[in-house]
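re: that chain from earlier
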Amino acid sequence: QINDTLGHAAGDALLRLAAERIRLSLRESDTVARIGGDEFTVVLPRITSSRDAGQVAANLIAALSRPFEIDDQKMYAGGSVGIALYPDDGASAEELLKRADTAMYRAKELGRGRHAFFKESRGVEVSARATLDRELRQALERKEFVLHYQPQIDVPTGEVTAAEALLRWQHPTRGLLGPAEFIDFAEENGLIEAIGEWVLRAACDQHRRWQDKGIHVPRISVNVSNRQLKQPGFTAAVDMALLKTQRAPSQLEIEVTESMVVESGEGALRALDALQGAGVRVAIDDFGTGYSSFGYLRTLPAEVLKLDRSFVTDIATDPDALVIASSMIQMARTLRK
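^ sequence. v structure.
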């Protein structure tokens, strides 16, 4: 951030000041080296216990948390520390560096400005993943997943044109969890297909119940994951959900991210083409953050482009942001998206 706002000279000054603070926080027998970017490595050859290493880490974090003065301006940087111990965490310098790096990222996940031990972080991670795997499987069986719905509004008329289904997990002890808490893990362990099919059926069923009650919502929108899109039976799962809930294809919108379509390959494009051909609307989310090119957009199987929020957050105050958003909207209209 300092490089971007004040220039690389200021960034270099910060590194020199940080290096000096680190050096002053260590003993003469210790070694400190900058290994690249804003990462430093410290070697502590004379410690009697892991507690000693933890105390040094706490001292370093405290030293780096104080403001730096660069070009008469106060700057704040801070630091996170990962600790690997010889010989428990590795017998070579390469192993220790790698595992200290792993522990450092764990420290960042804990909220930055902290330190973490490799063994401790590994144990916490393994235990947490095992617990999450078990609880996710139980969540499906116990019907703990719920859907919230976000209306899509036609601004000129104020009419609801669709409702987007947003997945939440009503965890029995942690409360209501958003997708950031579990979706990536569900993709990794293969549960996303089952969860995705449940979302599709539940959303379509809710749409039917709205219609039965006289509530007019033209279509329901459902987000689809990368792994779902790659499955050979994806289009069949969509067809089955529509059939069981007596929904017409035109009443469903499938939403995928721009990068997902490219990463999933030709099979994903064929699946989306088939769904679009059957009447299902296809929407591209986070548009503008992935692989945008005019050649690619020409063949993109989609009727809706959803601009990433980074393009629209400042359109009321930033003229450049307004120009970019307006240009993308005009392009979409030209492409009939």
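The chain has a mean pLDDT of 87.
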